[in-house]
Write a structure and sequence with these properties.
Helix content: 25-40%
Oligomer: single chain
Number of helices: 10
Order of helices and strands: EEHEHEHHEHHHHEHEEEH
Strand content: 5-15%
Shape: globular
Length: about 325
C-alpha cells in the first residue's frame, strides 16, 4: 500500500459518476447519485459488506422418505435423522476444537460467536436442523433456499430424458449453467433467486450454517469461491463432510469438516437428485469437488476434480458466477472495474 500511495490520485471531478468507500465501509460517497439502476444496486451491495471475521458452513439436507421427488415435501428417513444428529455433533465439536486451538496459541478464553442456522422451507432441511434447534441454536427458514426445480424431468431416468428431449439434452450439454429443461429452472435462474440470500450472507457478522439441497450449495459456493459458471453444475458435495468458508483479507478459504460413522449409502453426492444429463468429460472441470486444489484454465477459484481435499482460496467477498443478464451481475462488474 505504501508503494501505491505516491501514485494514487483521488477523484474530485464533480461531473463524473463515481462511488468512494473509506476504511472498509466507515463512509461511502456517491457522486451524481442519479446515474442509474446499476449504480444504485452496487451501492446497496457495498452497504452490506464488512470485514469482521465469521465462518460460513454448508451442509447437505438429510435423506428423505421419498428421495426421488421434488414435489413431495417428504420428511427425513431414519438414516436422514441419524445424519442430522451426527452432522450437528461434528459441527459443534469442530467449533469447540477451533476455540481450544486459539486458546492454546495464547488467545483469550472467550465464548464462541453465536451460530445461526438457515434452512429452506422444505421439511427435510427443516428437520435436518431440528437437532441443533433442540440444543438452543437459532434456526431460520428461507424460501429462496429451495432446491432447483427439475420441471418435467422429475423422476425421469437419463435414458428417458435423452429419448424424449434430445434437443434439450444437446442444449444442456452445451451450456449446463444457463439451460433449463421444460418448466424447470436453470442454475442461472437459481442464482438470481438467491440474490437476497447472498446480500444477507454478506451482511452476517455471526457464524452461519446453511442446510440446503446440493443445487443451492453449488451456487452459494460458486459465489463465495469465485467458481466459473460452467463448473457450478458439476460441483460435488458428499454428505460425509461440512464445508467451512472463512473470509480472509485477500482470499476466501474453504476447508472440509468430516462427519464420521455415516451409512455408506447416504454419502455419495446427490443420491436424491434428478437424473439430468451432465456435461461430457471434456467440459472445463468435469465432476469438480469443492475441496479440490487449484483452478481450471479459465479463471480463479474453481476446484478441479480428482485432487486432494485441502484448503482452497478465492478472491475477497467472492464474485458472481456469470456475467450475464439479471441483477446478480451488478457487483461482479463493479469489482472487476
Amino acid at each position: 500500500m505504501s508503494a501505491k500511495i505516491p501514485h494514487f490520485e483521488t477523484m474530485e471531478e464533480p461531473e463524473l459518476n463515481y462511488i468512494k468507500m473509506f476504511n472498509a465501509g466507515e463512509r461511502i460517497t456517491v457522486n451524481n447519485c442519479s446515474f442509474g439502476y446499476l449504480s444504485h444496486r452496487i451501492v446497496f451491495y457495498l452497504l452490506n459488506l464488512h470485514i469482521k471475521s465469521r465462518h460460513t458452513y454448508f451442509a447437505r439436507a438429510g435423506t428423505s422418505t421419498d428421495k426421488d421427488s421434488y414435489k413431495t415435501d417428504a420428511g427425513l428417513s431414519e438414516q436422514g435423522k441419524l445424519y442430522a444428529e451426527k452432522m450437528g455433533q461434528a459441527l459443534l465439536k469442530h467449533r469447540e476444537k477451533e476455540r481450544q486451538a486459539l486458546i492454546d496459541c495464547g488467545a483469550a478464553d472467550i465464548p464462541l460467536k453465536p451460530l445461526k442456522v438457515w434452512t429452506s422451507t422444505r421439511r427435510r432441511t427443516v428437520e435436518t436442523a431440528d437437532w441443533l434447534y433442540e440444543q438452543g441454536y437459532s434456526v431460520r427458514q428461507r424460501t429462496q433456499l429451495s432446491a432447483l426445480n427439475p420441471g418435467v424431468c422429475e423422476k425421469m431416468s437419463e435414458k428417458r430424458i435423452r429419448a424424449e428431449f434430445p434437443e434439450e439434452v444437446t442444449k444442456h450439454e452445451a451450456d449446463p449453467y444457463h439451460h433449463r429443461y421444460p418448466r424447470a429452472e436453470s442454475y442461472h435462474d437459481l442464482a438470481v433467486r438467491l440474490e437476497p440470500i447472498i446480500l444477507e450472507l454478506e451482511r452476517q457478522q455471526e457464524d452461519l450454517l446453511i442446510v440446503a439441497h446440493e443445487s443451492v450449495l453449488r451456487v452459494l459456493y460458486g459465489y463465495l469461491m469465485a467458481c466459473n459458471a460452467t463448473d457450478i453444475p458439476s460441483l460435488s458435495f458428499p454428505r460425509n463432510e461440512i464445508i467451512e468458508i472463512i473470509p480472509a483479507s485477500y482470499n476466501n478459504e474453504a476447508t472440509s469438516i468430516p462427519i464420521p460413522d455415516l451409512p455408506p449409502e447416504i454419502i455419495p453426492p446427490s443420491p436424491e437428485d434428478i437424473s439430468i444429463p451432465v456435461p461430457p468429460s471434456e467440459a472445463p472441470s468435469g465432476a469438480a469437488t469443492p475441496m479440490g486444489l487449484g483452478s481450471p484454465k479459465a479463471g480463479p477459484g474453481t476446484p478441479r476434480s480428482g485432487t486432494p481435499r485441502i484448503t482452497t482460496t478465492s478472491p475477497p467477498n467472492g464474485t458472481l458466477p456469470e456475467p450475464g443478464e439479471g441483477s446478480l451481475v451488478l457487483v461482479e462488474r463493479a469489482l472487476r472495474d
